[in-house]
Amino acid sequence: MKKTLMVAALSGVFATAAHAQSSVTLYGLIDAGLTYTNNQGGQHNFKMTSGSVNGSRWGLRGAEDLGGGLKAIFTLENGFSIANGTLGQGGREFGRQAFVGLSSTQYGAVTLGRQYDSVVDYLGPLALTGTQYGGTQFAHPFDNDNLDNSFRINNSVKYQSANYAGFKFGAQYGFSNQAAGFSNNRAYSVGASYNYGPLNVAAAYLQLNNSVTGAGAAAALSNSGGAVAGDNTFVAGLQRTFGAGLNYAFGPATVGFVFTQTKLENASGISGGAISATNGVGIGNYARFNNYELNGRYALTPALSLAGEFTYTDARLDGVKPKFEQVGLQTAYSLSKRTDVYLQGEYVHASDLGGTGLGAPITGVGMSSTPNQVSATVGIRHRF
Fold first, then answer.
1. Please, what is the Cα angle at 227 between 134 and 189, to 5 degrees?
2. What is the pTM of this model?
3. For the CA atoms of 188, 194, 200, 203, what is the dihedral angle to 10 degrees?
4. Which terminal residue of the chain, N or C, has fewer Cβ atoms less than 10 Å from its own Cβ?
5. First CA to last CA distance, the chain
6. Are 89 and 104 in contact (CB under 8 A)?
7. Cα–Cα distance between 332 and 33 in angstroms, integer?
């Protein structure tokens, strides 16, 4: 009888230990607000918005300890609109992230699935559009550099290193998944960051290869099952984005600067963000966007923060040289560790638009019919 009780007790201990080695976490963020825009396609608008700062999402994150510092990991993350309950990211069930892989405390992690690119991973945290201090509506015009994560990379294999005394690096490759076109709609990216006390620096590069069919603004990606499909920002045969940035903390204050450049070849239109490639707006065979962002944030108290950014964008579109000046301000107050309320506003002025048909764009709001646009949002965020 004593042996039976001992075996039962030991079995319970081992079962508890085995259970403790694996974990699955349900998490999420809900961002809802009311937004006023003075000119959206020629009309003022007052509407409910979802994700004005951070996209609403819920997800499952899991890990299994395999021993020796090695873990099996996975993430499944869904994006949705809190305003109407619909799926985000083109109706995908787990459109924000969906990957599985192995992680080592010594060597880093290798994951496979739908994932963020290296520009988002390494440079995004230094720009206000990539953080909780500005988010979606602080994105650079049309989110041309993807710092706001407008698209993810499908069919991708990603490596992210461990943290080596503040230095981290990574690389990613997204397969075209097309038997007769290995490079048709593939993507790859690399990035690195370094943290030393109050100083953070980062740099990253992203390239998208897309074979394009059709002509003019009616062109579309010819491989819809490739690395970037359905949520791509531009319709172009080739996109190259690179950038670098830094920020420095002075007690409760942080200031930073980010530069990015996006170049497009065989370009025919803007398919995401403010306008569609089918509405007659062409951007020419070659296009370029240079973005210069100066940003800062300050914690007035542990609960109250202020943040602001100024971005100057110098573009080249089919021989025209438009320029965009963008100012964004935000204040947020934490009601608890998981809930805060915020007020933020944006102003964009566009100039030298020529015959492009463009106006002033604010990401997540739309594009104005004039060279100026103003938007303001009051909202609430809850994390779980």
1. 60
2. 0.88
3. -30
4. N
5. 47
6. no
7. 13
CATH number of the domain within which 322 lies? 2.40.160.10
Amino acid at 366: G
Give per-residue pLDDT as tens, 254-282.
999 999 999 998 877 775 433 333 333 45
Nearest CA-CA partner of 54 in 148, 190, 180 = 148
Distance CA 318, CA 268 (A): 10
**Structure-token pair, residue 153:** 């990379």
Please report whether residue 126 resides in a domain: yes
Structural domains counted in the chain: 1
Q: Tell me, what DSSP letter sits at residue 156?
A: E
Determine, yes or no, domain membership for 6. no
Pick left, alpha or beta for residue 69 (phi over 0 → left; psi -120 to 50 → alpha; otherwise beta).
left
Please determine, for residue 57, whether its predicted confidence score (pLDDT) is greater than 90: yes
Sign of the torsion formed by the C-alpha atoms of 16, 19, 20 and 21: positive
CA distance 98 to 57: 13
Instruction: Dig out the tokens for 117 from the structure.
Output: 């690119």
Q: Give the integer Cα–Cα distance in Å for 131 and 287.
A: 27
- Calculate ∠ Cα 124-224-50, nearest 5°: 45
Q: Indicate if the alpha-carbon torsion angle 294, 250, 244, 305 is positive or negative.
A: negative
In a domain, 8, yes or no: no
